[in-house]
TrEMBL record:
Pfam families with a match to the protein in the record: BetaGal_ABD_1, BetaGal_gal-bd, Glyco_hydro_35
Organism annotation: Streptomyces nigra
Domain Glycoside hydrolase 35 catalytic: 11-326
Beta-galactosidase galactose-binding domain boundaries: 506-564
Gene3D superfamilies linked to this entry: Galactose-binding domain-like, Glycosidases
All copies of domain Beta-galactosidase 1-like first all-beta, residue ranges: 374-475
InterPro entries cross-referenced by the UniProt entry: B-gal_1-like, BetaGal1-like_ABD1, BetaGal_gal-bd, Galactose-bd-like_sf, GH, Gly_Hdrlase_35_cat, Glyco_hydro_35_CS, Glycoside_Hdrlase_35
Protein name: Beta-galactosidase
Record's keyword terms, sorted: Glycosidase, Hydrolase
Family statement: Belongs to the glycosyl hydrolase 35 family.
Source taxon at top rank: Bacteria
Amino acid sequence: MGDFGVGDDGFVLDGRPVRLLSGALHYFRVHEGHWGHRLAMLRAMGLNCAETYVPWNLHEPEPGRSRDVGALGRFLDAAREAGLWAVVRPGPYICAEWENGGLPSWLTAEVGARARTRDERYMGRVADWFGRLAEEIVPRQVDRGGPVVMVQVENEYGSYGSDAEYPRLLAGLLRDVGVTVPLCTSDGPEEHMLSAGSVPGVLATVNFGANAREAFDVLRRYRADGPLMCMEFWCGWFDHWGGGHTVRDAGDAAAVLREILECGASVNLYMAHGGTSFAGWAGANRGGALHDGPLEPDVTSYDYDAPIDERGAPTPKFWAFRRVLAGYADGPLPEPPPLPPVLEAEARTQWAGWASLDGVLEALGGPEVTEPVPPTFEELGVERGLVRYALDVPGPRRPYPLSVRGLRDLAVVYVDGVRAGTLAGEDAVLAEPVAGPARVELWVESLGRVNYGPRLGEAKGITGGVLHERQYLHGVRARGLRLEALDAAGAVRAVASDGVPGDGAPGLYRGTVVVRGAGDARLELPGWTRGFVWVDGFCLGRYWSAGPQRSLYVPGPVLREGVNDVWLLELEGAGRDPLLRPV
């Protein structure tokens, strides 16, 4: 039991001053079999607290249907067992480079621009969600013998909206469901962000990657007393498909950490360990200063150039941070735990069958609907996955440009069954004109919903229409394929299978890999273009030849000794047999 509180200039536990030395570690980005190791790594770095977001969309895939909300409680129990406190950030919006910023796509489709406002319908959904989430958080608060010392209200709301009443109402909801530990908010260190995102009587914290003293000066001008805390010290950064890999110098990051601590502040390293956005849950940004430009989808790896890398190994940044944090420890720091086992020997996948995309859609897709204009992913109930749009160009007519308005995000186009190109962008035009009559199919893939900025909650799919010259083509037949439809081995085995094609055609490739000495591994995909991989029903996430990520991390607990099932959903063009290597 403990009484954790907010003093005039610091945190107190049972009347004695304490400093939160926290590290972000998302339970949903780490295989549960590795939680204990990663939490022990936090302790070895010199931290006394673990912080995690909670993604609403992961846990409520449909209104009122829960999916393993208990994972949060199990993670908090693991943190307590590791000797760590915990900070929980339940949103409802979390950003986190996560699909839709953690908000369910069914919710943003339902309320539109009213998300993250005090709209009654939206707030009613939030109240229901908080009520369910409270079952995992409330019994594990520090005053009840658990690890939870603080809960955050929303996330960086001051970067999004100006209604200061909205976060105040959220704070009230958290109190109503039984949260008794201190609440906090987190925002950028700018006064307009702090004024909109903070709540009277609730601790305000700031997020930054450098210039700690300047950031805390802004916070002090806004709040004269209370603990100083950097809720997100950005010690690394994330990557986008088609971009480069971001790296931050360990010495530079350690110097900023030292500056934060010299200010007498508490800190949360974002990220201490990033992990992986398995199962296609990676989000996306919009480019440009106003976050309203081209789509920039996030890669599957959330390594983040963190001090603990994607597979849990210490980096030079880990050791640099440990040297800084050791000066604030009560005694000698524990040594890092041994790394989890790695794959004993490399193994190559052997293919046993293949099914066309049409065959997969026929077996595992949703119902086909016919609408005057293309329905969105949201209207078809597809959160992560793809939609096949089919329509007819009337004729006879001479060749005209075929264009797609409001395309989100990527479409592989077929004309009379022949691949005609790939389209991307809000206003995309096929390279070769199309004559009528013709049957056109557009296989559209969501590359991740926007997780930050004014375009949060935007719909996916074809959101405008398909035009032949200047004429809209109506009578669109659409059918969606949800990624989770391929998670069950029984469902995949039920898909009719043919021999593996020699031309690398897109489709569902099914095979096995024989493992000796199961452990952490990487799956290399030479020559494959873009798609998703499952190992024994566990979706590793998206691969894409666009880079910078060139392989997928395979957690050791996913593999089993001997024969393992592998299936790949390739959307453009297959390559050589995938290779499993020790990590």
